[in-house]
Design goal:
Blueprint lengths: L1 E7 L6 H20 L6 E7 L4 E3 L4 E3 L3 E2 L8 E4 L6 H7 L3 H10 L3 E4 L4 H5 L8 E2 L6 H7 L4 E2 L5 E4 L2 E4 L5 H13 L1 H11 L23 H12 L7 H7 L4 H12 L3 H19 L4 H7 L5 H12 L3 H8 L1 H4 L2
Parallel strand pairs: 1-2, 1-6, 2-5, 6-7, 7-11, 8-9
Antiparallel strand pairs: 3-4, 10-11
Length: 327
Amino acid sequence: MKHISILVPAGHTSVTNIEGTHQIFSEVNGLLMAMGKEPMFQIQLVGLSPEISQRNGLFTIKPDVLLQDVKQTNLIIIPAAMGDQQKAFELNKEFIPWIVQQYEAGAELVSFCIGAFILGGTGLLNGKQCTTHWRFINEFRQMFPDAHVVDDKIMTEDAGIYTSGGAYSYVNLVVYLIEKYAGREIAIMIAKAFMIDIDRVSQSPFIMFQGQKAHEDEPVKKAQAFIEQNFQEKITVDQLASMLALGRRNMERRFKKATANTVVEYIQRVKIEAAKKELETSRKNINEVMYDVGYSDTKAFRTTFKKITGLSPIDYKKKYNKEAMYA
């Protein structure tokens, strides 16, 4: 039987991550027993104290077991801890050596959403692919520069460490783990019972690009502002470098370091974000939107749009434009 430790962090934690995970894994046991098979999981809530207040006292969680009493486990679930991530880490740093010890003993690790910040604090994400909520990608990169962060994935798997993207995408990772441990048939049954899209792997359609401004490089901020104000025009790297009196290579290096995007990627993302907003709210057709954001090549626009959002422009419009939805 596989032992699952669902951590109950101190502070403001996603109760949904905790209860939902417990419920879904418990349902697997129920399905197996209904089929005349042995249950697969022993599921325990693991905390640092006998009672943990959540949501300013709205909820109180009583862990099944305290951390020091769990000598061995197979799977550790780290839910999202809300608020200031440095403070959340300080409140929960007692978990860190135990998580590392269990991983070195063979346990697999899972973080949901911004639970990745606690996992990142172990150092175990260094050099490994991971993700977190798209809104916190840049903050995560700054805190953990040695982690290989991907902002378009709903889930990642690397060397027995799993991470999920924003908010309720945790259910996709749970179903993925169930498929791994219990097989495709059980995973499909669970997905149907909880109405989970079993094969959704990208958070790209949900990302709202807001530009990466949390840096102190003023020339780069000026370049970003220029791009955002003139995205309909053809903007080149040489043009920006000349405007800022920087060499091209220096400009590109500083821009990438500050924003985690190349200049060309940033221009593309600003254009596509503008296109997304038009597709969500206007009655314009795809070509009209394409021209509005400065593209003249239909194939280039569609290719870039799908690369960034994971959907074609027409599929995006159908998914997010209410008028298109009911047309």
